[in-house]
Amino acid sequence: MRSLPLVFFPPVLNCDLHCHSICSDGLLPAESVARRAAANGVDLLALTDHDSLDGLAAARAVAEEAGMAFVNGVEVSIEWGGLQIHILGLNFDAADARLNGGLAAIRSGRIERAQRMAADLERVGLYGTFDGAMALAANPSLISRSHFARHLIESGVCKDMRSVFEAYLIPGRPGYVEHRWATLADSLDWIHGAGGVAAVAHPGRYRLSRADMRRFLGEFKDRGGAAIEVMSGSHTPEHIEVYSRLAREFGFLASRGSDFHGPNESYIDLGRLPSLPDGLEPVWQAF
Ligand code: AMP
Ligand code: MN
Ligand code: MN
Ligand code: MN
User: Fold this and answer.
1) Span 251-269, average pLDDT
2) Beta 44-47 vs 69-80: how paired, if at all?
3) What is the pLDDT of residues 134-152, one digit of tens each?
4) Of 76, 59, 71, nearest in space to 198 by CA
5) Is 80 exceeded by the pLDDT of residue 26?
6) Would the CB of 207 count as within 6 Å of ligand 1?
7) For atom 19 of ligand 1, which residue has the closest CA?
8) Alpha-carbon distance 1 to 283, whole Å?
């Protein structure tokens, strides 16, 4: 990270290393995300769109103008143990060919998946959801469950994000379809090959038993994974405690990210999470 003058930062760096723009399923353009982060007092930002690097150059340009440090980021969708898991890549070379090729391969199935989701939703009487969701996706190749969720809320089927996911979009519900994402090994090879640091995104969100979570973290570490997101917009105080302990035990660096998708939708705004708990090594020390 070329321009980060570490000595000038306050002892507690306000980093936000997880957020989204309209390049994936966020609601604001990448420039606006960076502008909002700077206005909220973020010192170090990573934009981490799902499976896409499209917003990085624009966000970086705004960050430079605002005097806010910026590292490249991405949130890679993988499948492990039958679950969709998200791996953050941070501070990598965005021009890396293998990373770009890998992300393109993950994206390529999303439109067919959306068609299958819409067909499933028709079976429970919900028509036109493909067109409805597509109309909300600025980047069609990143059509996601979030766009279906917003469409179903706008059309009055559900009242908010939480209830629409619970009713229609999680495993076992009528609009959920299996999808082939990358493997853990692929995601780590791509991130490391591009010179980046890998972090497990919002570990508290996965429906893994304690034993399976430890198995997952062990495999992630064996493959060179360096960090876990301890502070996340979707973590409860209990998650923070559990993942602080696991970070210490496994020797992981700790990351902090709001997972901001947009105003009035996300749990927490950019840069507004509490600081990392004492005694954890922040991931930005590896940048
Ligand atoms: P996809 O990549 O199409 O499977 O969509 C996953 C996205 O849906 C995540 O990145 C979140 O933004 C959103 N999401 C997943 N589960 C939930 C949930 N339970 N509540 C709200 N948003 C969710
Ligand atoms: Mn998302
Ligand atoms: Mn995620
Ligand atoms: Mn995210």
Assistant:
1) 96
2) parallel
3) 999 999 999 999 999 999 9
4) 76
5) yes
6) no
7) 165
8) 13
Averaged pLDDT of the chain? 95
Q: Which amino acid is at 87?
A: I
Q: In what order do the strands lie in the sheet with 197-200?
A: 15-16, 44-47, 69-80, 83-90, 197-200, 227-232, 253-257
Which long-range contacts (C-beta less than 8 Å, at least 24 apart) are formed by 146-152? Answer: 146/25, 146/261, 147/25, 148/114, 148/117, 148/121, 148/175, 152/126
Q: Residue 202 region, left (φ>0) first, then alpha (ψ -120 to 50), else beta?
A: left
| C-alpha dist (Å) from residue 6 to 35, 44, 226, 283 | 22, 11, 21, 14
Strands, E assignment, the chain: 15-16, 44-47, 69-80, 83-90, 197-200, 227-232, 253-257
Q: Give the closest residue (by CA) to ligand 1 atom 13.
A: 146
What is the position in ligand 1's atom list of the atom closest to the CA of 146? 8
Distance CA 162, CA 149 (A): 9
Q: Give residue 24 CA to ligand 2 midpoint distance, Å.
A: 7
Residue with tokens 């996911």: 165
pLDDT, tens only, 70-98: 999 999 999 999 999 999 999 999 999 99
- E strands in 115-223: 197-200
pLDDT of amino acid 10: 53
Rounded Cα gap, residues 41 and 64, in angstroms: 14
Residue 96: what residue type? D
